[in-house]
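Board notes (copied after class):
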Amino acid sequence: MNPLVRRIAVLSLVGAAVATAVTGTGTDIGTGTGTGTGTGTGGAALAAATAATAPASASPRPPLDPAALQAALRVRPDDQAAGAIALVAEPGQVWRGSSGDTVTGKRIPDNAHFHIGSISKTFESTVVLQLAAEGRVDLDRPIQHYLPGLLPDTFQPITVRQLLDLTSGLPDVLEGAPPVSTDEQIAHRYDYQSFDQIIQETLRPADRPWPGPRFAPGTKQEYNSLGFRIAGKLIEQVTGHSFKTEVTARILRPLHLDQTSVPEDNPRMPRPYLHGYLTNSAGEPVDVSEQNGNPSGMISTPADLDRFITALFRGRLLPSALLEEMFTLPKSEDGKVVPYADASNCLTADGKQGPACFGLGLMSVPLPDGTMLWGKTGHDYGYANGMFATRDLSLRGVYSISTTTANDGRANPISNRLLLAAVTPTRK
């Protein structure tokens, strides 16, 4: 995620175990068309593999409604979006869809690449937990042990676990810096910063007072990207390799995520790709698909992210005890889940502020019917994304929305419509 992009919102979508195809069509605003299909990158192989290993506990659901899902993707005037792609599925059924791009007037391929934003935090957490399984990282040892001198002395010891479950109390990336206009975001979209640069410019800025801790470590939860920049540096320090090398060797290559990449400072987008936009001060949409950010920025597709979350939840990447850490909410000494610090995340199904809702690299989203989704949202310039699933994989999904405005922390209407269409399919 570009270091100037601020924290993310959290309402999102769901997903699926894959098998046979469902097809749907529709027409969207602009000249593009939307399609739902069971084919595409990795579709047939993943379908067979998932069908063969579907969890016995997967609860039956009514069939997905392709028409409703496609209708959810159609861009409306108030969506602040140019288009969207999605994959939604459940055991024995998969739907892939796309809209038209309202800026170019062309259809968006449903296997298009996109910047995944903070969904990369789930990949990053997985690598750290793999290092913990290998005995190379202790989750309960302070980060100051592994990276001495990195944090100013004003910060208490912060454990690796607290970095990943967002209870560190660290300030967020570039907290306290002057606001950045959309025109400035457009002009600086090719800027690239290393983990060290982001950490130092946040904790030891030259042009403003150094920020201190927001709260004592472990007492609250608050969304924070700086902790994951520090975790990225930890990965590089412990392994002696770049984040890109470790993620590629440990996750992308073993799972054959051939359409997923860690571009580092290469702004080129692999084709086909979803175009992302920012609207400048003249009211014109500017294509910001090519952009830079930091060493943990990633590009992927709906099918690859679907394969990743499926493999992760099935235990292919982590031992069971460490996988369970990803679904474990942080608790205080009295055994209660710690409070969430503000109203930006962790809302209950009826919209009220709830306690902490993030485990290690995953967040929980309760639905009105009692179903709990686990996954991650992610934003980059021009993109709003989500990757979610139930733990038993009876429902999972991935989406990416081509946005036209800078992220303001709210869920996009398209993701909300898609969520409702996915969890309340028409019974026939």
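Comment from the instructor: Residues 1-58 have pLDDT under 50 and may be disordered. The first strand starts at residue 24 and ends at 27.
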